[in-house]
Amino acid sequence: MFYRHLQGAVEALLFASGQPLPAEKIAAILNIHIDHVHALIAEMSEAMKPEERGLVIVEVGEGYQLCTKPILVDIVNKLAEVQDSKLSTAALETLAIVAFKQPVTKQEIEGIRGVKADRVITTLLERMLIKEIGRKEAIGRPILYGTTNEFLQCFGLRSLEDLPDISALLPNIS
């Protein structure tokens, strides 16, 4: 490939970013066409496939990110000695409702779960897994919630279309 010499630059940008980096931004920084960025990343991804490599490039949200191969997560966790900050069952339930029903209001979430959701929504907002995406055209103009790119990143999704079809999982739910 003509731009092979830019692989190191792409790798450095993905590493330095730490967040998904849109192909458009990479193209602008390197002053190349976006199609060449996609080709470079495809070639780099192929080169990272062998077992002895520790990193992969994943497409997350609307960009690319350099990540540790899933098989090496335990080793990396030992280095970081990270305390798992897991979501509660209530938070996971609420997050699932937001993911599948978005845009959704707090009142709609509470109607589905049958309990108050103030604290859980605050937790999900603080962790940047959900965000306010507008207001509903209804009395009181309640806040509408939706998922974030951090949500996609956390669950390894390219887009919301990668979520499973809930009607196939729960045929009695609309």
Structural notes for this entry:
The protein is an alpha+beta fold and 174 residues long. It folds into two domains: 4-79, Orthogonal Bundle (Arc Repressor Mutant, subunit A), CATH 1.10.10.10; 89-169, Arc Repressor Mutant, subunit A (Orthogonal Bundle), CATH 1.10.10. The protein contains nine helices and five strands, in the order H-H-H-E-E-H-H-E-H-H-E-E-H-H. The chain has helices at residues 7-17, 23-30, 34-47, 73-80, 89-101, 106-113, 118-126, 149-154, 166-169; strands spanning 55-60, 63-68, 104-105, 130-135, 143-147. A three-stranded antiparallel sheet has the order 3-5-4. The N and C termini lie far apart (49 Å).
List keywords for this structure.
Arc Repressor Mutant, subunit A, alpha+beta, two-stranded antiparallel ribbon, three-stranded antiparallel β-sheet, single chain, 9 helices, 174 residues, 2 domains
Q: What is the strand and helix layout of this fold?
A:
Blueprint: H1 7-17, H2 23-30, H3 34-47, E1 55-60, E2 63-68, H4 73-80, H5 89-101, E3 104-105, H6 106-113, H7 118-126, E4 130-135, E5 143-147, H8 149-154, H9 166-169
Antiparallel strand pairs: 1-2, 3-5, 4-5
